[in-house]
């Protein structure tokens, strides 16, 4: 086997929002690195129209720009509070240009497999005789074209919102079926009877859009949820929550204030939409003001779980049946890294068990950046994650005592990231983190390393 020797470098998988943050942090720390990206430009999920992008034409962020942006690269002042996906993509491209990241990215590179190098691989490598032999801890990265590269380490940053999760429902359906990941524009809904399955943020947004184009729209909800508006008294709702967190307002008080806002805006829980079976913040709140409007006008009908597919009809858990032309499953995504064996990532209970969802408990050369579902913006959090990875690697290379201390911490992979919130037991919350406490913990860990 011919192997390209890049054993002095780290391999960053993906040039989306997480991969760019990782690439920038490594470069800033003087750690040699490459980034391998399967598309022809940066942006990942925000690169609209590409096969693995799940955004649709009308997508805007559900977190405000100041709680979404990177730490040292603000979004433009003329961006709206909740930017459109085209603006987010251009922001990511600007970030890559500003920090000189494009020259470190190889586009059109699909990774087929990542695995530990073996002694035989190292012996057969055609590295020049003057080159140092790669350490046994190196990683072999095999590309779809058969090329094999050896790297010092790997940072997986290809995201977790790309492998659609579709529920197994009895029966057959004769109409059109798609996942929210494949929904792009409302033309396919025009004049149709549409069922959206799943009432997360994407499902509610798509149901609202369907209400404006379809002949009839139904929204199937497994349970009731709590809803918050995007704005409260002219301020983005997550900015209000951020201020409360900054002043260390207890969870019970924040929950009480959010409940007041919810009731003022939408009435008592259960008045228009199904009553939730949990308290606020025990599930990711739905940030949507329009669903109530269209439900109250009869443009969105609410149903319980789907019980059976019956040709051109759907039977629901309450026994009712409705004729349906199109089903859109807004049922989330599988956590999936097909190029890595699960045991390599310390997979347990449906997800990789990693310290802070980033650090392998025993391996010092394997990391995952962006494997979180925060209750606010994500770019700043992956920025902190990436800086912490770079600090740890620098400490390891310099044999600093902080490296040994951190190794002991990351050996405890099962760390509670809920900040006292008891999340509903659901696949939706496998990666859920409370953004403020998670960010503060990352900052504290960063401070433990030398400047």
Walk me through the structure:
It is built from ten helices and 26 strands. It is an alpha/beta fold. The strands form eight sheets. Strands 1, 2, 3, 4, 5, 6 and 24 form a seven-stranded mixed β-sheet that branches. Strands 9-20-10-11-16 form a five-stranded parallel β-sheet. A four-stranded mixed β-sheet has the order 8-17-18-19, with no helix packed on it. The model is unreliable at 122-136 (pLDDT under 50). The chain starts with a strand and ends with a helix. The protein folds into two domains: 4-162 and 334-447, FAD/NAD(P)-binding domain (3-Layer(bba) Sandwich), CATH 3.50.50.60; 166-331, 3-Layer(bba) Sandwich (FAD/NAD(P)-binding domain). The longest helix is centred in the C-terminal third of the chain and has 19 residues, at 379-397.
Strand content: 15-25%
How much is the average pLDDT?
A: 93
The biggest beta sheet reads: 7 strands, mixed
Structural class: alpha/beta
CATH superfamily of the largest domain: FAD/NAD(P)-binding domain
Radius of gyration equals 23 Å
DSSP summary: helix tally:
10
The geometry reads as: globular
Q: How many domains make up the 3D coordinates?
A: 2
